[in-house]
Design a protein that fits this description.
The chain is of the alpha/beta class. Helix content is 35%, strand content 16%. Strands 1-2-3-4-5 form a 5-stranded parallel sheet.
Length: 154
């Protein structure tokens, strides 16, 4: 009934605390995407090592639960250029209390930088049970990104 409205994708969220095993790489040609979780964490793998490691994955790759602007400060890099160069997308996660999400939706300067950079965004909810599902937050994030003219992963 809804097949023209719903596209089912197969993806994998990979933790980076501690560094994940390389065995996952061989399966990525079967996936629609991979999300790498929390690379901004102080216990995550080294950012530069992470970037080189992601080159081995054969599917689209994104950053989940990650404050990219925190990474920018910590590593002293133009994070938006790095994301574009390494062909990554950034997930805006609307669930939980992710400070980066609230910061991004209220910070016009960061919104403009992301919009001008040409990076691709996705909107996620990371909902593990129906009680956590917040449709309004998902719709609001999509509306913001669309209004800024930012390309989204679909």
């Amino acid at each position: 009934k809804y097949k023209k409205y719903i596209k089912v994708l197969c993806g994998l969220e990979i933790g980076t605390r501690p560094e994940p095993n390389d065995f996952l790489i061989s399966y990525t040609d079967r996936l629609d995407y991979c999300l790498f979780e929390s690379i901004d964490s102080f216990v995550a793998m080294d950012f530069y090592e992470f970037l080189e490691w992601t080159r081995l994955f054969r599917c689209p790759k994104g950053l989940a639960h990650t404050d990219i602007f925190l990474l920018e400060k910590r590593y002293g890099v133009d994070i938006l250029r790095v994301i574009k160069e390494y062909d990554l997308f950034w997930e805006i996660n609307t669930s939980g209390n992710y400070n980066y999400y609230y910061d991004f939706i209220t910070n016009k300067d960061k919104q403009k930088r992301v919009s001008d950079s040409g990076i691709i965004l996705s909107v996620g909810s990371d909902t593990h049970w129906v009680g956590d599902f917040k449709l309004g937050k998902l719709q609001g994030a999509h509306k913001l990104i669309d209004g800024l003219g930012i390309k989204k992963v679909l």
